[in-house]
Specification:
- The protein is 29% helix and 24% strand.
- The chain contains 12 helices and 19 strands.
- The strands form 4 sheets. The protein has an 11-stranded mixed β-sheet.
- β8 and β9 form a beta hairpin.
- It is globular.
- The two termini are 28 Å apart.
- Bound molecules: zinc ion.
């Protein structure tokens, strides 16, 4: 395939900077086609549209999509393998499918995400867009340090390769080998999780390698956790490496990365030529106006192997369609966390992102933390474990008080307890950090899953 070579700061300038009206015109036409394709070819959508009394031709405006039924992770599990290997959500025969990714299934039945060749190629072009947007160029050397086994983030490296960067398929190498690669090959960009970017930087330092001066990394892409969108976490990683940190957001059901930071780091541009975004009320499922916080619902505009119509992502956030200072007109999402990770204490919604924001802001703690959410007398409570970073200058009791007060100010409620441990006590995560220990039974909303990358 001939390589696309953009001229200037945009990967595809016309597409990324088109006026909103033109973009929405395109979305409406594409959505009509996608709904008709799904209705005609997917047994599930045919049945669910009929049951809801809607037809693809009922879509006259983009807002009419709200008439169509939702799907969620449970729909995927229930329809998977039913009738055929690909199941009832799929809309093409198996011979047209060239790739499937699979969720780890650590908290349920693994779900499979199929792609036709066209789905796959278009996905990688979107990845090239994100890399380019984050400043990657053909003269970059790039280490893709994400899991390649079954995981949808693995193939995203092809987007970097198609852009022309020199790609090193790092995968989940042990830290020592990865540090060797960083030293020996002097790559300029890397993609990993925020907690691993932090842990790897610390490991480098402890082994006598200063990431800032001994390595050449200038761009770090992160995904899979909230940290990349929390300025304090991003700044800490940036400072450790002397690099700029870009947050990426993915959904295995659609693409490896569906949205990404531009140079302004103010929300993540979503590929609106592929994904139509709605925000709904967490309880009623009613559509919310753009900019309001709710559950993000995604609909694919072009996916053929398995069209995704009104998928409740389980992610809480906002969608802002305004033009960005970078000149791109595709809207931006701001993700606050998983619906299942949110918990309610004394009638206040507590988001893990708020806890992370607080912990990363304070200089008395290392930034590592674990939150335990539990129940006592059928009431939801939480405790936070942190590490004292003052080498004894501030007592553990004072650190605990400082954390408690800051959490109260940020979240509106106090934790039941703050446990303070010495620096280095909490496990430094490789890849996806497990920071929330959820022991809720009664007050829990829905089962957790791992489909965000
Ligand atoms: Zn922008």
């Amino acid at each position: 395939m001939a390589r696309h070579t953009p001229n200037g700061k945009y990967w595809r300038k016309e597409l990324e900077t088109q006026p909103r009206e033109k973009l929405e015109e395109y979305q409406l036409a594409a959505l009509r086609e996608e709904l008709a394709f799904a209705y005609e070819n997917s047994p599930h959508y045919h049945r669910s549209f009929d049951a809801a009394g809607v037809k693809p031709s009922d879509l006259k405006t983009l807002k009419d999509l709200a008439k169509f039924p939702f799907i969620d992770k449970k729909t995927q599990r229930d329809t998977q393998g039913v009738g055929s290997f690909l199941g009832e959500l799929a809309a093409v025969p198996e011979e047209e499918v060239v790739f499937v990714s699979t969720s780890s299934g650590s908290t349920g039945v693994p779900t499979m995400s199929p792609f036709t060749q066209q789905d796959f190629d278009e996905w990688q072009d979107v990845e090239s867009r994100w890399f380019w947007q984050a400043g990657m160029r053909p003269n970059d050397r790039y280490v893709h340090a994400l899991n390649f086994s079954l995981y949808v983030g693995g193939p995203d490296v092809i987007g970097a390769q198609q852009l022309g960067a020199l790609c090193i398929w790092g995968g989940t190498l042990p830290s020592e080998r990865l540090i060797f690669i960083l030293k020996a090959y002097q790559p300029t960009a890397i993609w990993t999780s925020p907690s691993y970017a932090w842990a790897l930087g610390e490991t480098c330092r402890k082994s006598g390698v200063d990431p800032k001066t001994d390595l050449a990394i200038k761009r770090i892409f992160v995904a899979g956790e909230m940290g990349g969108s929390i300025a304090a976490t991003r700044d800490a990683i940036a400072d450790l490496w002397g690099a700029e940190v870009f947050d990426f957001y993915g959904l295995s059901d659609i693409f490896g990365a569906c949205a990404a930071h531009c140079e302004y780091h103010d929300g993540l541009h979503i590929a609106e030529d592929h994904i139509y975004v709605e925000t709904i009320d967490l309880v009623t499922g009613e559509l919310l106006p753009p900019g309001e916080r709710g559950e993000l619902v995604f609909t694919t505009l072009r996916k053929k192997a398995r069209p995704i119509i009104r998928f409740r992502t389980g992610d809480i956030g906002r969608f802002v369609p305004d033009k960005c200072a970078c000149g791109r007109t595709h809207g931006r999402i701001y993700v606050d966390g998983r619906k299942d990770d949110m918990f309610i204490v004394s009638a206040v919604n507590v988001y893990p992102s708020d806890i992370e924001y607080t912990v990363r802001e304070l200089t008395e703690v290392t930034g590592e933390y674990v939150v335990r959410v539990y129940e006592e007398n059928y009431t939801c409570k939480f405790e936070v474990t942190v590490e004292n970073a003052t080498a004894g200058k501030t007592s553990d009791a004072d650190v605990a008080k400082r954390v408690t007060d800051s959490l109260k100010a940020r979240c509106g409620v106090k934790p039941a307890k703050v446990i303070v441990l010495p620096d280095g006590s909490l496990e430094r995560s490789t890849h996806k950090a497990k920071r929330i220990i959820d022991e809720r039974v009664v007050t829990k909303v829905a089962p957790k899953d791992d489909y965000s990358i």
